[in-house]
Amino acid sequence: MEDHTMGKKNKWPYLFCLPFIAAYALFSLYPMLYSLQLSFFDWNGIGTKTFVGLQNYITLFTKDPLFWKALKNTVILMAFSTPITVFLGLVVAYLLFDISRGKRLYQTVNFFPYITTPVAIGFIFSYLFDWQSGYANKLLTSIGILDEPFYWLNSETASKVIIVIMIVWRYLGYYMTIYLAAMTSMPMEVYEAAAVDGASNLKIFTRITIPMLRHTTVFLVITSMIGGLQMFEEPKLLFSGWAALGGAQTGGPGNTALTVVWKFYNDAFNLDSKLGYGSAIAYSLFMIIMLFSIIGFKITGRGEKES
Asked: Where are the transmembrane segments (predicted)?
């Protein structure tokens, strides 16, 4: 009798999980499996589907140089923005950790960009670096660094630099918050012992704080790599905000700001939509993200073993 009652009670957790499982299967799992199936077809979303097998993937990797350019741009932007954001987030968190007055204010100010609407961020940065009315040109010309306004958004190198600045500015507060949360769980006895031994703040930071935050850093680096390979909002909105009034082209000058997700968006949802080809791009990016994640885990895991 007791076992029968326990069996009935054990059904309730599954019943409570059922709405989430049903919603996930309907709105996430089914679209993912359907897009995988769609990657083997040629379809524009309206007409008849034509099975093409692996042709979409073959075309993508052998006959579409724009895909490789987009992948190169994405990796470059990720490679520059990730270490800068992680390092600055750690430094800012360390500086704010021991502040007694105004700590909440500083944390809030640094976290505001993370919750700012991406569309607003795109308009802000495209306006700041606008050729004619941007404050960057006004400042640099007023102090004599530039003789004439510089066309930032028409330069391949400057476009990448601006996107990196956007990413760092937007996500710095998030990284700072994660590091601050990790620092609050560290034992204070270690810091007190180091202070008694006469260790300087620099040695405490490099010999104690950084090693103890290793797992947090690994988490942030891996998630940054995954998010960086899915980069879309920053470059897309930069060249669709204020810069769009000047007729900025898709992908930036010479497609130097084109990312893989932006290319997927253009191929799958433009006027001449190719949903099958777009699905092939999405699943190719999924495999690339898996590869980068495995490499990242191997590198960070090896570093932990050596330490």
From this structure: 12-33, 75-97, 109-129, 161-182, 212-232, 275-297
Give the Cα separation of 303 and 307 in Å (integer): 6
Determine how β-strand 41-42 pairs with β-strand 50-51: antiparallel
Can you give the CATH number for the domain in which 231 is found?
Answer: 1.10.3720.10
Per-residue pLDDT tens over the stretch 79-137? 999 999 999 999 999 888 877 677 788 888 888 999 888 888 888 898 898 888 788 88
The residue type at 17: C
Contact 49, 203 (CB under 8 A): no
230 within domain boundaries: yes
- Measured distance CA(267)–CA(273) in Å, rounded: 6
The per-residue DSSP string of 69-110 comes to HHHHHHHHHHHHHHHHHHHHHHHHHHHHHT--SSHHHHHHHH
Indicate the angle between helix axes 65-97 and 103-115, nearest 10 degrees: 170
Q: Is residue 43 part of a domain?
A: no
- pLDDT score of 210 more than 90: no
As a residue count, the chain comes to: 307
Amino acid identity of 33?
L
**Dihedrals phi, psi of 51, to nearest 5 degrees:** -70, 125
Q: Which amino acid is at 261?
A: V
Determine if the pTM surpasses 0.70.
yes
**Sequence letter at residue 236:** K
Which residue range(s) make up the domain with 24? Answer: 1-38
DSSP 45: S
Are 97 and 176 in the same domain? yes
| Helix (DSSP H) and strand (DSSP E) numbers for the chain | 16, 2
